[in-house]
Design goal:
Layout (H helix, E strand, L loop, with lengths): L1 E3 L2 H13 L30 E6 H7 L5 H7 L3 E3 L17 E3 L8 E5 L2 E2 L18 E8 L3 H4 L6 E7 L6 E11 L3 E12 L2 E12 L8 E15 L2 E15 L9 E19 L3 E20 L8 E18 L5 E20 L6 E22 L4 E12 L3 E15 L2 E12 L3 H5 L11 E14 L4 E21 L2 E24 L2 E12 L9 E9 L4 E14 L7 E15 L5 E8 L18 E9 L1
Parallel strand pairs: 5-8
Antiparallel strand pairs: 1-2, 2-7, 3-4, 5-6, 7-8, 9-10, 9-30, 10-11, 11-12, 12-13, 13-14, 14-15, 15-16, 16-17, 17-18, 18-19, 19-20, 20-21, 21-22, 22-23, 23-24, 24-25, 25-26, 26-27, 27-28, 28-29, 29-30
Length: 624
């Protein structure tokens, strides 16, 4: 796991490096930010907030095909719900809800693919089954409000999934097959090509499992395509398409089991982009669209009559973003951008006996437009950097929303950084809250929170040891809650919360082939927030002698509300072991095995949904 410093400092260091104003022995080496060619808003150095990067190597070593378990293990302060061995679902009883520092319920953490927002346009929720490892180069997680750049839904943070781009000439690829507990099968195939100014990647993934409970079957297919054209060093253009099809069965809870409960989902996303880079100025434009088609049977209690209808929905989320960065004088960077987004969809029920019978039909859409401006300035030979910015977003349902942000960084030494930041995040009401079902209220305003953070990072032993700590205070208001008004349920902006806590992270290269990393987070909240652990500890030890690789990782959760009626909290510790051996040759072959939950711990992340005990997966991968 690569833990990057506070982004105000990262951005300033990168700026000074480009301008040539920083001395050769400055701290810039601590603040390197990967540059990606196509996604025009994927560089989180524009935000003065803490960022964790999860690499493709870490994703591959995990053996996971879903990204959420990897993020929970690698990112302090982040947690995601699970209801079983495979699949998250999208309707009642679904899982895959992500929170950062206790903020996340109601889609307050924005997921993106190459900077493109990913959430269902009708109900406003994230779609966890589409966040797969297929075609992913790295993941950038911003812990704190990202609304300055991304607007609504980035209230508690953002997760940007950066897709793979072929960067060397010729053809290369890999194929993988895995088999394990509960008749689980996982297959993946990817290939890439680069010749002169053109590169392309193509990959596919197929997962299927019977799940760890009766009526818990899951099936998923994903296809990813990307093309990049770089005519010269100043310009590049590209396009991506990502498609997912899945069917997930939900057995309900052990207290209220269900038969015949399933969801069938098809989702897609596509984008085109153009990027310019002239040294003193760079930027780009991206146009995007995502869409979904969902069909759901809400099931029935065992022995009861099945429902006579199916729920249907289609949704879309389309828009464009334009931004440009200018470096007009030494140690200064000025960034401005314009965003437009239109989202909405269609919901209806169809009869099972006669699909032409349509009931409960509704169509809605919402338009949003925004502009933002941010300036970064370095002082005293990069010992101090100051960042300030503001966004004005206009939504046709709620009017104007101002989003300020400010931060600074002090570097007392070559290998240490002290950071301070203030930022605002917000989430606009979704179509369900505004228009659908009895609690709907078309006069809702956005939820918002103010985030205050102090952090310190230290590099020691020639950068083989990295230590970090952060303190934060979050003040949330205007939360949308359902209350009784004149004897009827109605969504109202009445809720508030205060979250505060700290995080500690460490990474140590003990030997060239032995590494240790760990993270701990503590959260105190005055709200009864579900699935937000008070204490979370993660650690992994990796030993890689020669062609072998062994990883032992641990995850402990204490004092987490999981929805139990009596309000008791869940605590558990999981131990997982992964081992791999690579046979060198013209076509390298890697044999792998992983055993999860070694101690066969019994636990429930969501009350009434028992998680699996010890599970085993084994596989083989070919690279060419």
């Amino acid at each position: 796991m690569k833990i990057r410093p506070l982004l105000a400092g990262s951005f300033a260091a990168a700026t000074l490096g480009l301008s040539g104003a920083a001395p050769a022995d400055s701290i810039i080496s601590l603040a390197e930010v990967p540059v990606t060619a196509a996604p025009v808003k994927s560089n989180p150095a524009l935000l003065p907030l803490d960022v964790t990067e999860v690499t493709a190597e870490e994703i591959n070593q995990s053996g996971e095909t879903s990204l959420l378990p990897v993020l929970v293990n690698k990112v302090s302060g982040l947690f995601a719900t699970e209801r079983g061995f495979a699949g998250y679902g999208v309707s009642g009883g679904s899982a895959g809800e992500v929170n950062i520092r206790g903020v996340g319920q109601g889609n307050k953490v924005l997921f993106m693919i190459d900077g493109q927002p990913q959430w269902a346009g009708v109900f406003g929720h994230s779609v966890a089954d589409t966040y797969v490892a297929n075609g992913v180069e790295r993941i950038e997680v911003v812990k704190g409000p990202s609304s300055l750049l991304y607007g609504s839904n980035a209230m508690g943070g953002s997760v940007n999934i950066i897709t793979h781009r072929q960067n060397r000439d010729g053809v290369s690829g890999r194929a993988r097959a895995m088999f394990g507990s509960f008749s689980t099968q996982k297959f993946a195939l990817s290939t890439g090509m680069k010749k002169d100014k053109v590169s392309a990647t193509l990959s596919a993934q197929l997962d299927r499992s019977n799940g760890n409970r009766r009526n818990n079957q899951f099936w998923l297919a994903n296809e990813f395509m990307q093309v990049q054209y770089t005519p010269d060093r100043h310009w590049s253009t590209g396009a991506t398409v990502d498609l997912t099809q899945t069917t997930a069965h939900n057995p309900g809870t052990t207290q209220t089991p269900l038969d015949n409960m399933w969801t069938n989902m098809s989702r897609g996303t596509a984008s085109v982009n153009v990027r310019d880079n002239y040294g003193i100025a760079d930027g780009g434009v991206q146009a995007f669209v995502s869409w979904g088609r969902h069909k759901v049977d809400d099931g029935n209690a065992p022995g009861a009559d099945p429902r006579d209808y199916l729920f249907n929905s289609t949704d879309y989320n389309l828009g464009f973003t334009i931004f440009q960065t200018l470096r007009l004088w030494s140690a200064n960077t000025l960034t401005g951008g314009i965003d437009f987004q239109r989202w909405g969809g269609h919901v209806w029920n169809t009869g099972k006996a006669d699909p032409t019978v349509i009931t409960a039909e509704s169509r809605h859409h919402v338009n949003e437009a925004a502009g933002y401006l941010m300036m970064q300035q370095g002082f005293l030979r990069n010992l101090l950097s100051v960042n300030a910015g503001v966004r004005l977003q206009h939504g046709e349902t709620y009017g104007n929303e101002w989003v300020p942000q400010a931060g600074l960084i002090i570097r007392p030494g070559r290998a240490s950084e002290f950071k301070l930041s203030f930022s605002k995040g917000f989430r606009a009401p979704n179509i369900r809250e505004l228009y659908l079902y009895p609690p709907a209220n078309a006069d809702l305003k956005p939820e918002y929170m103010l985030n205050y953070e102090i952090s310190y990072r230290q590099h020691l032993a020639d950068n083989r040891l990295t230590l970090g700590a952060a303190l934060y205070f979050i003040d949330g208001d205007n939360m949308i809650q359902t209350q009784m008004v004149d004897g009827k349920p109605r969504n109202m902006n009445t809720g508030s919360f205060i979250n505060k806590g700290f995080e500690i992270e460490a990474g140590w290269a003990i030997l060239p082939d032995l590494t240790l990393s760990a993270n701990y987070s503590y959260l105190h909240t005055n709200a009864n927030t579900l699935y937000a652990p008070k204490n979370k500890l993660g650690a992994d030890l990796t030993y890689s002698p020669g062609n072998f690789s062994f990883t032992l990782d641990e995850q402990s959760i204490w004092n987490m509300l999981n929805g139990a009626p009596d309000g008791h909290t869940e605590s558990y510790t999981l131990l997982n072991l992964r081992a791999a051996y690579t046979l060198e040759g013209r076509v390298p072959v890697t044999l792998s095995m992983k055993v999860e939950n070694l101690t066969d711990k019994r636990y429930e992340i969501i009350y009434g949904c028992p998680m699996p005990g010890t599970t085993l997966m084994g596989g083989v991968e070919f690279r060419f």
